[in-house]
DNA sequence: CATTTTTGTCCGCTATAATGTACATGTGAT
DNA sequence: ATCACATGTACATTATAGCGGACAAAAATG
């Protein structure tokens, strides 16, 4: 079941993969692009991209927008995403949990998941401070940069974790190199304790708290996090962790519930 | 630019199309299914479906859920849909408009769009009546069955409308046949007046009001609707239409707004 | 103007993706 | 036990999808 890396210098890409590469690229760019630009920037043959874009357009997966023949993600994707959200109905409880956390702690609260082999903030509630600490929703961040990351991969064996996370993601934003073995150690610690906290390694003034939200198979399907100023976080550590655990417990009951069954 | 209809009895289906056929099918079913079931129900070769499902699984487009090898729409779709929603940032204003409508009229208010060649309720706010009139979100409904349908296709020439809407969608739920020409006439009337209202043809007790929400190119990108008991609707017709138009006007300002541009 | 770059279309070649078929296993009915 | 059916896998065949490259219009550049 482990995916083969494409070692071979690349033969022909499969249409489906190319298509989702295009979609992911547009999502990452967060703006409409011309087919030509897409081709150039993802390094794919122009003729292929043109053909795929036209196919996706005619399916409603992409839409013309922004003029000049630019395309962006289409309505169909919204509908499909809404169906996912509806099936794994975490949104309602999730918002409630974040609200509760924000009320109790006045800190920024986040609900995070994996997106492929990256970490992503799915929903967020800003804290009530004069200077709020905030994050972009839906941005892909290397797993090792985050507290949640330790929890989200904890169900995997060591070696699979190392295969799963791209090498370069252990290079921290300040240029330092995070030793994968110490990362693994932190993962195991997080797994044992059911939480992870640290002074953020992506900046110099925040402290992060993360606890798992366990899914169907019992491993962390998501995390709830608090992002706080360092001194506040350290001062309120126990209380904050209690709040997080309470909120996470409230989320763990209604995972997947089909309509009719 | 007009799409060719696939007259030919069908040769080989393209992977991409098959893939999105699978996704749409799962959305429609609103439940996890085994690959085998999918193949049988959409009438596709089993081997093809198995291959595609595996591809989609490895991309995060589909996910195992519900056990027994059943699959359903995956997290990646949620992320892509969220990016769409974020780009065409209608959600916030949309909820506000529905809230306002529900407050002012106490009737069920809906925000509707086309999904391919079907009509879909994207968001809804139930009215404040003891017996609420409600609809399922995200269900695909034939365009001719709905008041909004008249507005959503009004930008097309007559012939293209007839090409666009599947023949069988003119068969109403009560078995009657709606003459396409009278449908077209209603479309043109709706276009002239900038609204459409009628006693619903999908049941015997509701009256429907729809006004367009115009998008980039000036045609109805969506509609705002009220679904009311017949007598209330007819009694309050003018007021309700005013409320709808006011709410729609509030939505028409922020259509597509790229992040940086 | 001439020249270069960007953008979109068209077409032939061939690697390969979609398919049909056969096979293997599990499950339940008779 | 035997049969029927549902479910998943493996493989050879061949229609075609992805690709490269040619062409041309349009836009930018000099």
Describe the protein.
The structure is a homodimer of 261-residue chains. Chain A is α+β, with helices and mostly antiparallel strands. Chain A folds into two domains: 15-79, Winged helix-like DNA-binding domain superfamily/Winged helix DNA-binding domain (Arc Repressor Mutant, subunit A, Orthogonal Bundle), CATH 1.10.10; 88-251, 2-Layer Sandwich (Beta-Lactamase), CATH 3.30.450.40. Chain A contains ten helices and eight strands. Chain A has helices at residues 15-29, 35-42, 46-59, 75-87, 91-105, 147-152, 158-164, 180-193, 230-235, 237-251; strands at residues 62-64, 71-73, 108-115, 118-125, 140-142, 196-199, 206-214, 220-229. In chain A, the strands form two sheets. Chain A has a six-stranded antiparallel beta sheet. A two-stranded antiparallel sheet of chain A has the order 1-2. In chain A, strand 3 and strand 4 (118-125) form a beta hairpin. In chain A, helix 1 crosses helix 3 and helix 2 crosses helix 3. The first copy, chain A, is globular. The relative contact order of chain A is 0.11. The model of chain A is unreliable at 1-8 and 255-261 (pLDDT under 50). At the A-B interface, helix 1, helix 3, helix 4 and strand 3 of A face helix 1, helix 3, helix 4 and strand 3 of B. Chain B binds a DNA duplex (30 and 30 nucleotides) through helix 2 and helix 3.
């Amino acid at each position: 079941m482990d995916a083969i890396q494409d070692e071979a210098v690349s033969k022909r890409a499969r249409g489906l993969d190319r298509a989702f590469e295009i979609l992911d690229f547009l999502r990452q760019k967060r703006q409409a692009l011309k087919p030509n630009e897409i081709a150039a920037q993802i390094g794919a043959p122009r003729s292929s991209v043109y053909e795929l874009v036209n196919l996706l357009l005619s399916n409603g997966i992409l839409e013309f927008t922004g003029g000049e023949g630019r395309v962006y993600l289409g309505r169909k994707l919204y509908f499909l995403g809404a169906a996912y959200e509806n099936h794994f109905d975490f949104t309602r409880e999730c918002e409630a949990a974040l609200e509760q956390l924000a009320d109790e702690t006045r800190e920024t609260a986040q609900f995070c998941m994996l997106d492929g082999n990256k970490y992503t903030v799915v929903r967020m509630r800003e804290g009530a401070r004069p200077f709020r600490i905030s994050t972009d929703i839906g941005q892909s961040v290397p797993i090792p940069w985050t507290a949640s990351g330790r929890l989200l991969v904890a169900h995997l064996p060591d070696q699979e974790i190392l295969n799963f996370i791209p090498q370069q993601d252990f290079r921290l934003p300040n240029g330092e190199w995070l030793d994968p073995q110490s990362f693994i150690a932190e993962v195991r610690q997080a797994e044992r304790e059911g939480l992870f906290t640290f002074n953020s390694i992506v900046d110099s003034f925040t402290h992060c708290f993360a606890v798992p939200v366990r899914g169907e198979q019992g491993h962390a399907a998501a995390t709830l996090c608090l992002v706080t100023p360092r001194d506040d976080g350290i001062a309120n550590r126990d209380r904050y962790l209690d709040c997080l655990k309470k909120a996470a417990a409230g989320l763990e009951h209604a995972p997947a519930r089909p309509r009719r069954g």
